[in-house]
Amino acid sequence: MAAQRSPPRARARERERPGALASGNDQVHSWALVTSHALDIAWGIAKGSVMLAVSFLVAALCYFRRLHFHVGHRLKWWSGYLQRKFKRNLSVEAEVDLLSYCAREWKGDTPRAKLMRKAYEELFWRHHIKCVRQVKRDNYDALRSVLFQIFSQGLSFPSWMKEKDIVKLPEKLLFSQGCNWIQQYSFGPENYTGSNVFGKLRKCVELLKTQWTEFSGIKDYHKRGSMCNILFSDAILEYKLYEALKFIMLYQVTEAYEQMKMKKVIPSLFRLLFSRETSSDPLSFMMNHLNSVGDTCGLEQIDMFILGYALEVKIKVFRLFKFNSRDFEVCYPEEPLREWPQISLLTENDRHYHVPVF
């Protein structure tokens, strides 16, 4: 039986169906391309935005890092400036623990470091020195260490200063004893060479008398300490006081020399002084030794004897570099004429001194 033939419309729809399928596939492909292209564009935009944001963040971080560094540097500078401006620059510092100071200053295993550590331990355990005050290192530090202790302890005037007006001593040397050479006196690093030496010396000695009188009249230890902090943070006043001490030493040397010329008995320390070629008389002592003090050198051992004698104090010095020898402890002068008050110093090299605190 012959197969039934399809109607004409059905055959036409069958012929049109492949074209429709192809057209639908093309549309899907087009939409896919459009979508892919749109996604590519969107990703490119997003990627660019992300890269721009990352670049901005990196730039911002770098900027703020630099800003933080700059601000921190400026704050540190201003902090240091304000501290220097408003904090007293003490030439005798506050007390610090003796053994802690030693551990900080003398590290290592060198023979000298070991010697110093043993010397500091000796001071701590045997001599009961618990703290130390560091003294500014310059060519006045021996005078500074001695005067600081005289004022902080409230010691009174030496007996001979109570009998004489020390303010008039410069004129006394010139007019009574004919010491015209005193016009060559040098004021430490100032190197003053003017004609008003006597006027400058008088002001220095007058300041010493005023300050000494004030400190010796204060009975409260803490008040003297506060006043010392004020005085020993004023470099100008300090240097005037030290020049006054130098002149007091020169006056005592001149007095001893005059007594020696009159065949009177003088302390052995002055005989030793005048036996040296460089200090055979007051003028050579001033020119060769005293004028350099405060400028290019500090006090020598013979000068320490004279200083102790002039101020009527027994200066006991612990010479740490001489530990385990008979010169570890020395006194200036060795045999004080009377029961003078004692002050103590410590030194690591006979050039710079510190103040021990018992």
Automatic annotation (TrEMBL):
InterPro entries according to UniProt: FAM105, OTULINL
Pfam families for the chain: Peptidase_C101
Localization annotation: Cytoplasm
Assigned keywords, A-Z: Cytoplasm
Region Disordered: start-end pairs: 1-23
Keyword Cytoplasm carried by entry: yes
Keyword Protein biosynthesis (UniProt): no
Family per similarity comment: Belongs to the peptidase C65 family. Otulin subfamily.
This protein's name: Inactive ubiquitin thioesterase FAM105A
